[in-house]
Each structure stands twice: as structure tokens, then as C-alpha cells.
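Dear V.,

Thank you for sending over the compound details. I've combined the ligand you provided, flavin mononucleotide, with the protein sequence from our construct and run the structure prediction for the complex. I'm sharing the raw inputs here so there's no ambiguity about protonation or stereochemistry in the SMILES, which I know was a concern on your side last time.
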Amino acid sequence: MNQKVLFDLSYGLYIVTSKEKEKFSGCVVNTVCQATAEEKPKLTVIINKENYTNQIAKKSKKLNISVLSKEADMLLIGKFGFRSGKDFNKLEGTEYIEGKNGVPVITQAVCSYLECDVIDVIDCGSHSIFVLEMQDAEILSEKEPMTYQYYHNVIKGKTPPKASSYMGK
Ligand SMILES: Cc1cc2nc3c(=O)[nH]c(=O)nc-3n(C[C@H](O)[C@H](O)[C@H](O)COP(=O)(O)O)c2cc1C
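Below is the predicted structure of the protein with flavin mononucleotide bound, written out as C-alpha cells.
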């Protein structure tokens, strides 16, 4: 079985955020997918069980998604993609607004955002698949969305162990 086939799959890059009482976190993901085009579209996102964002979203049942633009730099991606919100406040020094659902939405280097309810959580081994229902969405700029390919080929970014697509060194 040639596992390198998995590198041919295409993705975008996002920051998902969640908040429960005073607990907040957000993390970079490449695993957002539109599942349906109903009046309130359904989406899925896959988050590692050890990520603080996973634990908070399971309790709050709310997850907001910011679509990163090609302007996102390694400072922003490093903060949300390589460090845990268990250790520090990721909102400090980051541009954000409060969503209608009360969950902060990252607006720095972002094209658009979605506010979602978590309507189901499916166990997927190391990761959970969150099934989301979109409740609100806004376009913030006409900037081009970041793709996973652009992140690897142009920004020369790495994939950390908790990402779904991590393949070891
Ligand atoms: C390019 C990139 C893609 C990532 N994709 C995912 C993903 O799809 N799912 C996931 O759980 N973690 C993914 N991660 C890893 C999380 O962003 C990382 O573990 C983060 O530090 C978790 O933060 P938290 O503990 O505050 O939730 C990705 C990271 C990067 C840099």
C-alpha cells in the first residue's frame, strides 16, 4: 500500500475556535469539508482528541471556522497550529471579533468565517469527526484562500503530529 497517495488529497487551511465559560482555544486545521447544501449547510471537521479545542467544543457544542487567506504567516499558524491553548491565551495579540454565538472568531489574515453548532461527534480513533450545522457566515475580504499545497510549497510549512495528515518524519 503506497501511503504517499494521501499527499494527493487537496485541502484548505482554517482556524477553528471554541469557548466554554472562561475556557477558550482554537487550532489550525486542514480538515474542514462541506457535507450538505441544505438551508443550514452541514460541514465536518476532524480534530485530534488531545487538542484542547476538541475538549472545549465537545462541551460547548459550538465551533467557529475562519478561512485563512494566503496572507496568513507562520507567526499566526505557529501560534494556533503548533502550541496548545492549555498553556497560554491564543487571543492575546491576535485580531478577532466575538461571534453572534459568543465564540471568538479569528479575523487576522482571514477571507471569511462560519459560526456553527456541533450536532454530532463521531469517534475516529486518534481524532473526532465533528458534524456541524452552519448558523451564520460572513465574507470579510476578497483575499485568496490558503490551500494546504500553498502552505507546503510556498510557505514551506510543516505538519505537526496531531494533524490528521501527519505521516511521521
Ligand atoms: C498545517 C496544519 C494543519 C493541521 N491540521 C489539523 C487537523 O486537521 N486536525 C487537528 O486536530 N489538528 C491539526 N493541526 C494541529 C493543531 O493545530 C495543533 O495540534 C494545535 O496546537 C492544537 O491546539 P489546541 O491544543 O489549543 O487545540 C494542524 C496544524 C497545522 C500547522
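A first observation: The domain at 3-153 is CATH 2.30.110.10 (Pnp Oxidase; Chain A).

Warm regards,
I. M.
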